[in-house]
Amino acid sequence: MTKNNDTISKRKFMEELYRYKRGSVTRRHFLGVTGLGTATAVLAGAMPALRPRRAFAQGDIGDRVVLATWPNYHDPANFDAFTEATGAHVQVNVFGSNEEMLAKLQAGGSGWDVFVPTNYTITTYVGEDLIEALDSSLMPNYDPAAYDPRFSDAGSVDGTLYAVPKNWGTTGYAVNTNHLDGREMTTWKDFWDITMDAYSGRTMVHDYQLTTIGNALKYFGYSFNSVDPNELAEAEKLLLDAKPHLFAISSDYQPPMLNGDAWLTMCWTGDGKQLNTDMPEIAYVLGKEGGEIWSDYYAVPKGAPHRDAAYALINFLLAPEVNAKEVLAHGYPSADANTNALLPEELLNDPILYPAQELLDALEFGAAATLTDPNRAELLARFKSA
Amino acid sequence: MRIYAIFVYLFLYIPIGIIALFSFNAGRHASQLQGLSTQWYGKALSNPFVMDALETSLIVAFVSAICASVFGTMAAVALQGIRGPIRVVFDLLIYVAVMIPGIVIGIATLIGLVTLFDQLNPLVASLWPTDAPPKFSMGYGSLIAAHTLFTMSLVIIIIRARLAGMDRALTEASSDLYATPLGTFRQVTLPLILPAILAGFLLSFTFSFDDFIIAFFVAGSETTLPIYVFSSIRRGVTPEINAIGTMVLAVSLVLLITAQLLLRNGKSRT
Amino acid sequence: MTQRGRNLVLLAPAGAWFLVMLVVPLTVVLIFSFGERGAAGGYVPAFTLDQYANLPARWTAFKNTLILAPVGTLAALLIAYPLAYFLAVRADPKWKTLLLVLVIVPFWTSILIRSYAWIFILGGRGIPALLDWIGIGGVRLINTPFSVLVGIAYGYLPLMVFPIFVNLDRLDKRLLEASSDLGAPPWRTFLQVTLPMSLPGVATGCLLVFILLMGEFLIPALLGGGKVFFVGNALVDLFLQSRNWAFGSAVAATLVAIMLVTVTAYMRLIRRLGAQREDVSLM
Q1: Which subunits sit against B, judged by 3+ Cβ pairs under 8 A?
Q2: Is the N or the C terminus of chain C less surrounded, counting Cβ atoms within 10 Å?
Q3: Nearest CB to A64; choose among B48, B110, B114
Q4: Is the pTM of this model over 0.90?
Q5: Do the chains contact at B222 and A111, CB–CB below 8 Å?
Q6: Pairs of CB atoms within 8 A across B/C
Q7: Residue of A nearest to B222 (CA)
Q8: Which residues in C lie closer than 8 A to residue A243 (C-beta atoms)?
Q9: C112/B96 CB distance under 8 A
Q10: Do the Cβ atoms of C225 and A249 come within 8 Å?
Q11: What is the domain range of residue B196?
Q12: Same domain, yes or no, for B228 and B262?
């Protein structure tokens, strides 16, 4: 590595990042030029990784903090380390859909200190006055310039910071290839077709309207975010036809995939990575037609009972050294260049975390309208109770 | 017949056995045994959220069982002497309270109280002299109130059944002998219905301690033990949950056996 | 204070409780059921019958509940009755209390944890693996109506055993002896003496289990894989996912109405049967 690379300016870094995202340079080139590819202890030492300690030392943050997040989305060892460093225990509540989180906050008195909303929901939380504006001075580890704006933009609404990026990822499907008998799975059409055929009784779909309806819409080539009644009607018919062939409707799909009860499931990046690590015969596939690309954020709900602890926890988890451990444990990519600098190269080249550009290009971010669209909510509820 | 009974007991206890077995698992997973250890017991006992949830559950169960037994007994005794529309209304209310599924009680309490609080809170705030008026919200109060609704109705039914079997001549004789109503209650009625009150209290406590559905809706930011268990199950069960379940079971067994022994001793002494 | 005044004071706490915790919430549910869903969820005041018109969208959930609640009650009864009979009539009196306690003990671990044990037993590595080992392959148990039924029968067994046991235990054993002394074969004794005498217990147990099952949500959620849907699951979904308080209220109100009708009809029936039996015994 040359000196020149070491001192790459922020501006140059962003330029390179955009070039990379446009696909005009390879990942290897990008990582090389920006110096991010050298996940070395030298770099780790130079990074602001040691800052968190100072932040924790100040003041007593209480003995607990409550986190509402998603399944398989953290390294439990990091929570233990947080407790050790601050004395605050972390209670993790897990949710399977953004709707569930919203419902809990709308009913009042959730008791959460930190929650993890997805990009497209944040404007709704702001509109409903359920989310706190964040004070970035309380999160010294948050280095906005280090983040790919595509995955951090949604955290600010009208210039106010409400949420800081956690991880980004895609929604594809995980398939146990042992039962494929040579068939190729590349599209959402394949997903639904094999569900109603050779994989009958072995498929799981999310208990989550955005992805379950969105990926049914993809069967017909419609937008993942469609709220068009006719398109939704077609998706509903597909879902109802497929329902008798499903193993379960649940966002907690790892246990049945691992014990062999389920062979195919809608799946998020990191779960795909975890499943693939535990059982190499489980492959992660992104539908060629497209589907969802998303970015999750840390946010603080209005009236959080342990606000200081909330900031301390977010700040702790954003520290690149901690964040890198998180990524290694859960397999969801981070949009933070500082974190990626600490990750091994093979992970940064992993096709599950960083799919090929042409697959990424077809993906859509969720749209705010799908969260609150009453027809989509009712469609999923009808599908489940059918 | 005996073989059949053995089969039913196996049916009842194999799942319990599995829970207890996996509580000693050395590994992280609740369904793959990887050596034996008691580490999860230590983890559960040192986890403040588990202890907090246990405390919340015990407080809620105890307070609601007390409320249910006291108010339920009062109502049952009073209803003995009441005829007419009031009695009809109460009979109907008790019937509805017992018959409505827990989930509807939970939902109705949630939206009912949230709506009520939305009206009350601004009112209280406008009348309150300082800047920090008290705010009604879901929590201990709503949990205890919702549990008591159901268990109080149970207590009333149990005690009325007992009172119905009671000889009315006894209370009449007592008042003929110029005992005050309170005296009659303490000397005659109470001893007769005490077993029913105790049974009602225990039933109320058990119901409240094990209830998940009502608490799920009305607990607000409080976490009872069943709510804690539910959210743990969703984030992938570790043997910590099995350890909690096994401990609750063991403690209840010890309490039960102690009570049995005390009762037996008490009997042999008299 | 007059007797009447005293009684009213004694009734006041219970009355207040019923008012705030039962009458007000149920009224709110009823009012909401004629309203509309807010833009981001919740409730907006309105007067419309739309929510009730939309009820057929939950037809399957109602159907599942109305089928599986009675079937589950029956399953629990079929398993519980012989056990209660054994405990009350055949078991060694020395062990009776212990055996009875052993029936309730599982009830003290949360139903959640117990259901989780069943996920393991009925899942791919449990019974199906055993069956596969003895040569019966391809059996799937978890996430089927069957697994939900097992969970129900398991979860509600003690509630069924108890009332029946209490009834049978009170039964005068001399009646049974008299019957067999008069030359009646055991099955006739059972059909003509034991069974009729235990009917009140059976009626109580069935009522208890049926009421709880009509609102069941956990067992189908855990053992049904989100596929075997009860009204309870539909309600949880409407309030905790799609945030449609208006429609949720309509479903809840309908469930309460169904329960009022079925339970009242059931109690009438039981009362009539009871009355008939008394006539018989009087003759």
Answers
A1: A, C
A2: C
A3: B48
A4: no
A5: yes
A6: 217
A7: A111
A8: 227
A9: no
A10: yes
A11: 48-236
A12: no
Percentage of chain C exceeding pLDDT 70:
96
Distance from CA of A152 to the nearest CA of B (A): 26
Mapped onto helix, strand or coil, the DSSP state of residue A157 is strand
Q: What is the pLDDT of residue B29?
A: 66
Return the CATH number at B215: 1.10.3720.10
Q: Can you tell me whether residue A57 is helix, strand or coil?
A: helix
Q: Given this model, what pLDDT does residue A59 score?
A: 61
Q: Which of A149, A189, A205, A154 is nearest to A337 (CA)?
A: A149
Give domain limits for chain A. Answer: 3-34, 51-168+294-335, 169-293+355-385
**Per-residue pLDDT, A163:** 97
> How many residue contacts between A and B have a Cβ separation below 8 Å?
44
Question: What is the model's pLDDT at position C197?
Answer: 83
Q: Please, what is the end-to-end C-alpha distance for chain C in angstroms?
A: 49
Q: Which amino acid is at B75?
A: A
Same domain membership, residue B253 and residue B218: no
Q: Can you read off the two tokens belonging to residue A295?
A: 């970015």
In the predicted model, is pLDDT for residue A6 greater than 50? no
Under an 8 A CB cutoff, do B5 and C108 touch?
no
Closest partner residue to C242 among A124, A259, A377, by Cβ?
A377
B79 shares its domain with B91: yes
Give me the pLDDT at residue A231, please. 97
In chain B, which among 44-103 make CB contacts under 8 A with chain A?
47-49
Burial of B230 (0-12, 13-18, 19+ CB in 10 A): buried
Question: Is residue B126 situated within a structural domain?
Answer: yes
Q: What's the token pair of residue C85?
A: 């009979």
pLDDT digits 0-9 by tens, B159-200? 988 888 776 777 777 778 877 878 888 888 888 888 889 888
Q: At the fourth CATH level, which superfamily is domain A169-293+355-385?
A: Periplasmic binding protein-like II (3.40.190.10)
Q: Average pLDDT of chain C?
A: 88
Taking 90 as the threshold, does the pLDDT of residue C15 lie above it?
A: yes
- Chain B partners of A61 at a C-beta cutoff of 8 Å? none
Domains A51-168+294-335 and A169-293+355-385 share a fold: yes
- Tens of pLDDT along B12-55? 999 999 989 989 988 776 667 778 889 889 988 888 888 889 99
Do the domain assignments include residue B42? Answer: no
B229 HSE (CA, 13 A, CB side): 29
Q: Going from the N-terminus, what domains does chain C have, and what CATH number goes with each?
A: 60-282 (1.10.3720.10)
Q: How high is the pLDDT of residue B235?
A: 64
C234 close to A (CB below 8 A):
yes
User: Chain A: residue nearest B231 by CA?
Assistant: A93
Per the CB < 8 A criterion, the answer to whether C82 and B4 are in contact is yes
Contacts of B72 in chain C (CB under 8 A): 14
Q: Does domain A51-168+294-335 have CATH number 3.40.190.10?
A: yes
Q: Are residues B177 and B85 in the same domain?
A: yes
Q: Judge if B87 and B215 occupy the same domain.
A: yes
> Are B17 and B84 in a shared domain?
no
Most confident of B130-139, C7-16, C135-144: C7-16
> Could you write out the DSSP letters of every residue in A258-315?
HTTS-SEEEEEHHHHHHHHHH-TTEEEE--TT-EEEEEEEEE-BTT-TTHHHHHHHHH
| Residue in chain A nearest C242 by alpha carbon | A377
The C-alpha of B131 sits at a distance from chain C's nearest C-alpha, in angstroms, of 28
Q: Does A327 score more than 50 pLDDT?
A: yes
